[in-house]
Structure formats: C-alpha cells, structure tokens
Design goal:
Helix content: 25-40%
Radius of gyration: 18 Å
Strand order of the largest sheet: 1-2-3-4-7
Number of domains: 2
Mean pLDDT: 75
Low-confidence stretches: 56-92
Largest sheet: 5 strands, antiparallel
Order of helices and strands: HEEEHEHEEEHHHHH
Distance between the termini: 36 Å
Shape: globular
Number of strands: 7
Strand content: 5-15%
Length: 209
C-alpha cells in the first residue's frame, strides 16, 4: 500500500480510537457491533482497512491498546502476531472476502506502527494526527465552515480538506501549530529528559480541555 494511502488510513483509524468521527468510514453491521471500514483512493487505486473493537462498551485509554486492525490483503493478514478468527458474522462474505477466513492481529497501541511505519515516523504521524483533531475540534467549537477556517489559517479550503482526509505528508507539525494559533489556540512545546530505561526521546501531543 502506498505511503500516502497508509498515512491517510492510519490518521482516520487514530481518530476512531480517540472516539472521533473520521471521513469515509462506515460501520459494517452485518458482522455485529464494533466493526468499521475505512476507504482511501490514491492514484486510481482503492484501499480499505477494517477496524474491530473487542467488545461493546465505552472506549477508554486502557482499552485503546487492545483494538484490532484487520488488513484487507490476505498476504498481509497472515502476518498477525495474535491470530484468531473473527467471531461476529463468521462466514459472512463482504466485497469478495470471507470474514471467517481472515486472520487479524492485536494493535501494538500505535496504529501507524501497526501498518508499517518506523517508530520515528509513527511518532511524527501520531503528533500530526493529534494536532489535526485539535484543529477540527476548534473549528467545530467556533462553528466555522471550512472556507472560513481556511481563510483564518492563511490557506485554501482544498488544502484544509486534504489535511483533514489524513494526507499527512502535505503538512508539517509547525504549520499545523500555526493554524491552531490562527484559530485562537495556544500551542506549548515542553522539552524534558527521557527516562533512562527508554532508548530515545519521544514526541507527543496533548490537547488541554
């Protein structure tokens, strides 16, 4: 899968894990509760990723690391480290796939790492996705249209829309931070020493209430 498509799908999967509503996703009720499909088109090809929540109930931070990602390609699906068979809707066919025959794996806790990005790339893409969620939340709170928000951010609506679709390579962290400033939000960067047991530092974004 191309990097751009993986980044877009990963960004929207991250939104789902944060209990947000991403673009171009739908529940697959024929397989039971908590099964969703994400789609992305890139250079004339269509890609999809399926996401399964383990059980009905409120999503909480302790459960995020147990979310399941189902890969669409059988060759990729066979690489799972936690191989099981989907029980909800077993035997149901969808888009040429027999759900009972697809293996899936437990998420590591970082969706970008799960779909093949390096740890450094995954940290950067997670930070970008967190900033994009904060931008979306701010636009919603201020009841702005995308056109109005784009003008405030000094960009155009198609660019903003592309970023909201998860095209993360098209924007930098500092540009996203600048958009938040333009929308009236403060962005603080805190640098501190890492714990000795961790080999390298990490990049994280927290949205204050």
């Amino acid at each position: 899968m191309p990097r751009e498509a993986k980044g877009s799908l990963g960004s929207r999967l991250y939104e789902l894990q944060q209990r947000k509503t991403p673009l171009d996703f739908k529940p697959l009720s024929q397989f039971g509760w908590g099964v969703y499909e994400l789609r992305e088109s890139f250079e004339g090809n269509a890609y999809r990723m399926m996401y399964v929540e383990p059980e009905e109930g409120a999503l909480c931070a302790a459960r995020l690391q147990e979310k399941i990602q189902v890969r669409d390609r059988p060759a990729e699906a066979g690489r799972g480290v936690d191989r099981r068979t989907l029980t909800a809707g077993a035997g149901v066919r969808y888009g040429g796939l027999n759900m009972a025959k697809i293996s899936f794996e437990k998420s590591s806790g970082n969706v970008f790492a799960d779909i093949g990005f390096t740890p450094a790339e995954a940290a950067e893409l997670t930070a970008k996705s967190s900033l994009i969620i904060a931008i979306k939340d701010t636009i919603e709170q201020r009841k702005l249209t995308q056109q109005e928000a784009a003008r405030l951010c000094g960009t155009d609506q198609p660019t903003l829309s592309k970023v909201f679709r998860g095209r993360l390579d098209s924007v930098t962290i500092d540009r996203l931070a600048g958009w938040l400033n333009a929308l009236g939000r403060d962005v603080e960067i805190i640098v501190k020493s890492r714990p000795r047991m961790r080999g390298r530092g990490r990049l994280r974004v927290f949205e204050a209430a």
